[in-house]
Amino acid sequence: MKLTIYNNIESKDIEINSFKIVVVGEIYSGKYSFVNRICNRCFEETREFQYTDFKIGFFKNERNEFIKTQLWIDYRDQRFRNQRYYLLKDMHSMVFVYDITTKRTFDCIVNYLYPEYQDYILKQQPEHPPQLMVIGNKSDLRGQINSKQSVDTEEAREFANSIGALFFEVSAKDNINIDESAIELIKNLKKNFNNNINQPNNNNDDQSFFSNCIIN
């Protein structure tokens, strides 16, 4: 399936799927910039922070059929911690974003964000674990920083492999690997959807969960 990213659709296009994607990471890791590149096809140097951001992205195939993505950015404001359940509920994918120039942002994923995700999934969504992706942002700065402060590519790749996640290093600023990573994620979501919806023994919970992906 060949996919292209669009920031708008035409009346002739047919919506076939909708997926909910939650994007998490430490402050200044580039979560908003990554999502903004996908949905608005642009880069913003500065951004005000709030509890969540929500954007819509469209991926269209050669038959003018499109997949809609709801991308939720979680800024992890502790004032709204009790509301995070509703943000994560029925998500189809979680994307962990770190800044490759700052090791702390990667360690946060390993030590806090991923364990928190595991705890949620085991309690709320054990039968349908979301597709995971690990994104190393700001790859354009790799050659301009002290290597001791940066995140080693192979270390990050090994972590992603160990949790069954897709892995990409990207630059939201220079638009490097943004489309490739987003399209690969959507292809995997579509594949997972097709595999699960075609299983003969799906129960009512399965049908309810995957009905969120189907456009009638």
Automatic annotation (TrEMBL):
<dbReference type="GO" id="GO:0016020">
    <property type="term" value="C:membrane"/>
</dbReference>
<dbReference type="InterPro" id="IPR001806">
    <property type="entry name" value="Small_GTPase"/>
</dbReference>
<keyword id="KW-0547">Nucleotide-binding</keyword>
<protein>
    <recommendedName>
        <fullName>Rab GTPase</fullName>
    </recommendedName>
</protein>
<dbReference type="GO" id="GO:0005525">
    <property type="term" value="F:GTP binding"/>
</dbReference>
<dbReference type="InterPro" id="IPR027417">
    <property type="entry name" value="P-loop_NTPase"/>
</dbReference>
<dbReference type="Pfam" id="PF00071">
    <property type="entry name" value="Ras"/>
</dbReference>
<dbReference type="GO" id="GO:0003924">
    <property type="term" value="F:GTPase activity"/>
</dbReference>
<dbReference type="GO" id="GO:0006887">
    <property type="term" value="P:exocytosis"/>
</dbReference>
